[in-house]
Amino acid sequence: MQLEGRVAVITGGASGIGRACVKRFAQEGADVVVADLNPERGAEVVNEVKSSTNQRALFVPVDVTSEDDIERLADAAMSEFGRIDCAVAAAGVSNAHYVSGELQQRAADPTAGFLVNKPVEDWKRVLDVNLTGVMLTDRALARRMIEAGNGGSIVNIASVAGKLPLAGAGDYCVSKAGVVMLTKMLALELSGQGIRVNAIGPGFIETPMTAGLRTNPEGEQRVMAMTPMGRMGKPEEIANTALFLASDESSYFTGQTIFPAGGMFVG
Question: Global pTM?
């Protein structure tokens, strides 16, 4: 019960890594606020928490690119639970047209996603969700932590792609590299308030975002060639990393990015 008596806010909490974090944190004693665009799946995970643990759970529909939505999320958490102790900013997209739960088909032209060909609107969309959305989430929740005066822990979901460029995914790679630096900046600025900020840089994980690769033999072969451990990670493995960073077990960690990526990045 590493998070007993604590309240965790998790964006992207209805799917993939975010959903795994919701369930893992609840297992460890946290009451959870699930933030996501999808109300049906949000209600599902809330019901899972309530049926499998003794923890309270609340769903709040949120678009992380909207500052108003993020402020409403933070207010809802405070109104329902009276405190925010930890957060996981897991909401993200792999590309501008990504919809969680829908199978992503690889473009016929492999150069279509190159930065010289990519529409600016697509670039902006990915950075709005993956980088600005994380910043808005972090600062709104940090403000409530500062007001409460009890400190806290924030965990951002970056990616190994923030360190390794992937042709055709320039917007995604740049957005995740930005999350790594954002984490360092917030860690520096919030350390005096007792708030730790760290990040996780997963490799290829078995989530809806990678379903297209897993159902395509060529795509799966490319992934395995890039991953020394020879397999994709499980969402639960990332949730365990997030649990470590959110809990007192990592009390001397801040500004760090941990890469559970099967050996893809070891620098």
Answer: 0.95
